[in-house]
Amino acid sequence: MRQPVLFAFLVVGLTFSAIWSLSAGAVPISWQVIANTLFDLEGPKQEFIVLKSRLPRTFLAMLTGGSLALSGAIVQALLRNPLASPKIIGINSGAALGVCLMVLILPGISLAWLPVAAVVGGIVAALVIYLGADLRGASPVRLALVGIAVGFVFDAGVDFILVTSSDAQFSAPLIWLTGSLWARGWTHLNLVWPWLAALAVLAMLLSYWLDLIRLGETAATGLGLRVRVARLILLSIAVLLAALSVSVVGVLGFVGLMAPHIARTLVGGSHKVMMPCAMLVGMWLVVLADAAGRAIAPPVEVSAGVLTAMLGAPFFVYVMIRAGRAARV
Amino acid sequence: MICRRFFLSLAASLLALSPLPALAADIKHELGTTKVPDAPQRVVVLEFSFVDALAALAVVPVGIADDNKRENIIPEYAAVFGESWQSVGTRKTPSLEVIASLQPDLIIADKTRHEAAYDTLSQIAPTIVLDSLGGDYHDAVDQMSVIGAALGQPAKAAQRVAEHKEKMAGYDREINKASKGVSAQFGVANAKGLWLHSPVSYNGSLLKMFGFSSNMTPSEGEVYETTYVPTTLEQLSVVNPDILILGKYVDPAFTDGWAGETLYEGLTAVKNNNVFYVTAHNWSRLRGLLAAELTAQDLLEIISETSAKK
Amino acid sequence: MTSEGLARNSGGGIFLPLLFLACCVSAYASLSTGGRSDVGIWGLFEDGGTGAAVMQDIRAPRTLVALCLGVNLGLAGLILQAITRNALASPAILGINQGAALGLALGLVFPALGAVLDLKALSIAGAFLAGLISFGIAGGFGGRLDSLRLVLGGVAVGAFAYALVRFTFTLEDDVARQVLRWTVGNITDVRMNEVRSIAGWSAGGLIATALLAHRLNLMALGEAQATGLGADPRFTLLAGAIVAACLTGTAVAVAGPIAFTGLVVPHICRLLLGSDHRLLVPATALAGAALMMTADAASKWLTAPIETPVGVVVALIGAPYFLYQTLFARGLD
C-alpha cells in the first residue's frame, strides 16, 4: 500500500517542521537550551520564548491549519468546484466587518471580545449567503457567486469604516486580521481547541456524506441520504471551522484552497482518506509559514497570512490553468 | 558545565545588583493593577512617550520599540540613554521574543496598540498599560506620576513635572504675548495627503495651552472626535489659520504641490509668510515632557519670526 | 439576458434625453457641494475672489474628472461584457483594484522598488497585471469567459494582493495611512492637469466605441453569425480589449482603482434601452458620468466634514447591486 507510507511521511515531515518552528525566531536559541526547557532538564532554559510563545504558537498553527484545510475540503466538495475556498462562504469578509463594527459601535470595548465579533461576523455572512442562494435554488455556481458578492458588500463596508475613521483605534484589530500569530499563546489555544477538535472529528466522521454527494443528488438520495440536510450540516461545520480559526489567527489565505488540492493529488478523491491527508498538509503549511515569518526579518514578524498567500497565489494560477486545459480536452 | 557555572555567576551578579529584598508596589493603570518590583532595573518601553518619560527620569531602558530605526530615538534622548539599549522592533507588533530575551522587570505598553498582547506581555514581566496614542498633552504629563511610581521614583517624577511646568510657564509667557487672538494649526503631510491634528489631539492641546485659538470647528457646533483629519485644500481654506505649521514625512510632500494655486496663495498664513516647517517625527510621533519642551522651543522660534515680520 | 422583451422599447427616444438631464443634475450637485458652504455654482462665472478660485481650481476639475471616469469605466465595462458575452465582465471583478493596491504596497514596503518606478506607475502596473491574470485564468483570451472562473480568479488575485496590503498595516502608521488612501479610488485633489490627461482618452474612447458599436452588436449574435455577416470576431475582440484597457488604465492613473461602475452602468442601460450598442454607447457614457458625479457629490457630504473617497461611495452602491445581480440574474446556474 502506498497510502500508509505517504501518511507516515507527512507525519514525520510535520514533526520536523514543528521542531524547527521551536528554534525559529528573533532570538537564536541552541538545541541544548530548547531541550532543557522542554523536558525540564538541568541547565539554562528559555521559559517564555520556548514554552509560552513558540510552543503554543506551533500548536495553534497546526490546529488552525488543519481546520482551514478541512473547511476547504468540505466547501470544495459541496460546491463541486476545486477552486473554491472558505473565503467563498464569506468567512474572511464577515469576520473583518464584525471586528470593525464592534470597534466603531462600542469604542473602548475590551479586545477580548474581538474573536467573538469575528465569529459572529463570519457566521452572519455565511447565513446571508446560504439563505440568499437557497432562496434562488442553491446551485453550486449560484452559491459561489452569491458568496463572492456578499464578500464584496462586506468589504465595501470595511473600507468605508476604515477610510472615514482615521483613528488609530483600528490599527490593532487590523493586525489581528492580517493572519498573524503574533502575541498568541496558551489562552488563545485553550479558547478554541476543544471546539475545533470536536468539529474536526465530526467532519471526519461525516466525510462519507461528501462521497455520496459527489455521486450526484439523485444517487445520494437513492442511497438514503437527505441531501439538503446533509449539505446544511456540512456547510455549518465548514463555516464554524473556518470562522473559529479566523477569530484567533486572522485571515490565513489559500490554506483552505491548497491543502485539499495537494491531498487530492496525493491520495485521490475519496474523502475518507483525503480529509485526514488534507488536514496534515494544512497543518504543515501553517506551521512552516508561521516559523518562516518569524525567521525572515527579525525582529519584525512577517504575517503567516502573507506567506501562505505568496505560496498560494501561484499555486492557484497553476491549478486554474490545469483545470482549464482539462476542460478543453 | 562551563555554561552552567557562567549562568550561576551571572545570576549571582544580578542578585548583587538589585537591592534586596525587592519591595513590590501596586501600580494602577488602564487595564488593571499590576505588582511592580521596587525600582525596576530592566525596563522595556513600547511607545515614544514612555521613552520620553524615562529620559526625563534619566532611567535607561533595556529595550525600545523604535520602529526599527535607531535614529527615531532623537539626540535629546540618546544623550541620556547612550547606545546600550536594544530595539525590540515596531511599535505595532514588537517582537515578544526579543523583549523576553532582555529579561525585563517592567514593560510599559500603550492601550490602543498593545491591549491584545497585554496577557502575553504580563507573562514576560509586570506590564503597565497607559493611553499614550489616544491621549493629549495633559494626559502625557499625568502619566509621568504613574511611570514615576512604577520606576520607584515618585519624588523625582514629581520634581521633574514641577520643573517642566515651570519651564513651560516660562515659554508660555513668551508665546502668550504673540498668541492672543492668533490661530495656529499643525498638520502632517506625506506623499498622498494632508492630515490636520485637531484640537483634541496631542499637538492641538499644546497649541491651545499656549493660547493659540483653532479655527478647526466642524459645522453645526459639533466637536471633532477624531484626532487626525484628512484635509483638502478647500477645507484648509475654511480653517484658514493665521499660522500654519507643517511636518513633512517626505520631500517634496503633498502640500508642496499647492504652491502657486490661487486658493493656497490666498490663505492668510501663506499671504503673510507664516507657513513654518517643523520635524514631523518630533511633533507627530513624540509626546511627553522633553518632546513638549522641544515643541515649545519650535513655537518660540516661529513666534519670533512672525513678530519680526510685523 | 432579458433582452428579448426589452428590445421592443429600444427606441431610446425618451431615455437618452432623460440620461442627459440626470447628467446635468448630478453635475450641478457635484459642483455645489464641497468644504466651503459659502461658495456656490455662480463662482464659475466670477472673476477673481475665493468663490472663483474654489470653483475654477478645485470643484470644476473634480467634476470633470468624475465625468470622464464615468465615461471611461462605463464604456470599458460595456465593451468587455459585449466581447466576452458575459454580464459579469468588468474591471472590478477582474481584481484590478487589489492589483493596484498591491503595486503600491510593494513600492512602499520595498523603497528600492519605489525608487525605480514611481508609486503611480507601480499601481498601474499592478492593476494591469492583476487584470491580465484573472482575464487569462477565466479564458478571456480564448474569447469566452466562464462566469465562475472569472469571479474566482478575480477573488484569488484580490486575496493575494490584500494579504500584502494588510501586512503593511502591521508596519508604520504613516505607511498604513498612505496605502489605505491609495487603494480606494480618490479624486479629492485633482486639478486641471488631471482633466487634461484623461479627457482626450475619454473622447477618443467614446469615438472608438461608437465605431465598434455595430461590430459589438454582431458579437452578441455569436461568433459564427458575426463571421457570416462579414465581421471578423478576432478583430472585434482585439480592438475591444485594447480600447477597454486604455480606458481603464487612464482611469486608474488619475483616480486609482474604482470598482463596480463598469459593472453596474452597462447593465442598467441595457435594462432601459435593450441591446443595440449604437444606442448603448452614448447611453452608457451619459449614465456613467451621471453615476460618478453623483458619487462625487455624495463623497463630499456623506461624512462631512471628512470626505469619503469616491471609490468607497461607488463600492457601497455597486457591491449590493452585484449581489442583487448574482441573486436574480438568470442563466448563471
Descriptive tags:
heterotrimer; A: 329 residues; mainly alpha; ABC transporter involved in vitamin B12 uptake, BtuC; 14 helices; globular; B: 310 residues; alpha/beta; five-stranded parallel sheet; five-stranded mixed sheet
Structural account:
- The complex is a heterotrimer of chains A (329), B (310) and C (333).
- Chain A is an all-alpha fold and 329 residues long.
- Helix content of chain A is 77%, strand content 0%.
- Chain A has 14 helices and no strands.
- Chain A is globular and about 65 Å long.
- The relative contact order of chain A is 0.16.
- With 310 residues, chain B is an alpha/beta fold.
- Chain B has 14 helices and twelve strands.
- Chain B has helices spanning 2-17, 48-56, 75-81, 96-101, 111-114, 118-124, 137-150, 154-179, 202-209, 233-239, 262-265, 268-271, 280-285, 289-309; strands at residues 24-29, 32-37, 43-45, 63-64, 86-87, 106-110, 127-130, 184-189, 194-197, 228-231, 243-248, 275-278.
- Chain C is mainly alpha-helical.
- Chain C contains 14 helices and no strands.
- Chain C is globular and about 65 Å long.
- Chains in contact: A-B, A-C, B-C.
- At the A-C interface, helix 5, helix 6, helix 7 and helix 14 of A face helix 7, helix 8 and helix 14 of C.
Low-confidence runs of chain A (pLDDT<50, min 5 residues)? none
In sequence order, what are the helices and strands of chain A, one letter per element?
HHHHHHHHHHHHHH
Largest sheet of chain A: none
Number of separate strands of chain B: 12
- Label the structural class of chain B: alpha/beta
Q: Overall pLDDT of chain A, averaged?
A: 86
Rg of chain A, alpha carbons: 20 Å
Average per-residue pLDDT of chain B, rounded, comes to 86
Segments of chain B where pLDDT lies below 50 for 5+ residues? 8-21
N/C terminus separation of chain A: 32 Å
**Distance linking N and C termini of chain B:** 77 Å
CATH fold topology of chain A = ABC transporter involved in vitamin B12 uptake, BtuC
Structural domain count of chain A: 1
User: What is the strand content of chain B?
Assistant: 15-25%
What is the helix fraction of residues of chain A, given as a range?
over 70%
Tell me the major beta sheet of chain B: 5 strands, parallel
CATH superfamily of chain A: ABC transporter involved in vitamin B12 uptake, BtuC
CATH class value of chain A:
Mainly Alpha
Helix content of chain B: 40-55%
Number of strands of chain A: 0
